[in-house]
Amino acid sequence: MIFEFEALQRNHTWSLVPLPERRIPIGCRWVYRVKENPNGGVEKYKARLVAKGFHQQAGFDFNETFSPIVKPTTIRIVLTIALSRGWSVRQLDINDAFLNGILQEEVFMSQPQGFVDEKHPKYVCRLHKALYGLKQAPRAWFERLHKALLQFGFVSSKADQSLFFRITSTHTTYILVFVDDILITGSNADVVTTLIKLLDVKFSLKDLGEITYFLGIQVTHTVNGFHLSQHKYIRDFLVKTKMLQAKGLSTPMTSGLNISS
C-alpha cells in the first residue's frame, strides 16, 4: 500500500483541495491480489488503489469510456507472421498504466483509507491523472499511448485499432496492445530494443523478454515454433469454480448421426 501510494504521489495523480459546493466526491478502496507466474508461482503481492467509478455520473464527471482492445484473430496473425519470418516476440508490462492517462473532466475523490492528510483531513483529491476504477481510465490511457506511438512513426490499423505498425525501407515493426500488456515484434531486433527503451522513458515499463503468457494463452517455445495452450487459464477457472477435483465424464454421441436440415 505504501509503494502504491508513493507511486501515486510521484505521478502527481491528484492535488488536495477543499470540496467545491454542490459536489459529492466519489469513493475509493484498496484492492489486494497475488500476481502469479505462468507456472502458478507467486510473482509478487500487489495493493492497488481503485476509485469507485460506479459513483460517477455520465455527462458530469465522465463522457467517453470506450477503449479498443486487440482481437484474438489479430494476435494469432501477428504471431504467425513473426514465426514464419523468424522474428522474436517481446512482451512488455506498463507500470501503473492507467496513471498515465490524463483526465479531461473534473473529478473529485475522497482521500484513501490509511493515508488521510493530517493537516487537511477534510480535503478531497482533485484527480489530474486517471485512476483504476474510473470509467474513463482505459480510454484516457489508450489515447496517451496512441499519441506517443504516432509520434514514434507508427500507424494504427483500420482493421484493429490496437494493432500498430511501422514499415520502412529497412525494417518492419508491429505492436499489439491490450490495456497495459504489449507485444512487440519486428524484422530488426535493434530497432525493437530501441523502441522499448523509448517507451520505458515515456511511461516506465517492465521488459518481460520473450512472450510466455499473454491474455490467458501460455506460449511455449519449441524447435518448430510456438506451442499455444490455455492450461493455466483453465486450471485457474476450475479453482475459482471449485471444480478442480471434479471427475471428467465422456459426452456420448450416436455414431453416424445425421444432423443435416
TrEMBL record:
* Ranges for domain Reverse transcriptase Ty1/copia-type: 11-254
**What InterPro entries does the record tag this protein with?**
DNA/RNA_pol_sf, RVT_2
- Where would one find the signal peptide in this protein? none
Q: Name one Pfam family in it.
A: RVT_2
**Its domain of life?**
Eukaryota
Protein name as catalogued:
Reverse transcriptase Ty1/copia-type domain-containing protein
Please name the source species: Vitis vinifera
Higher taxonomy: Eukaryota, Viridiplantae, Streptophyta, Embryophyta, Tracheophyta
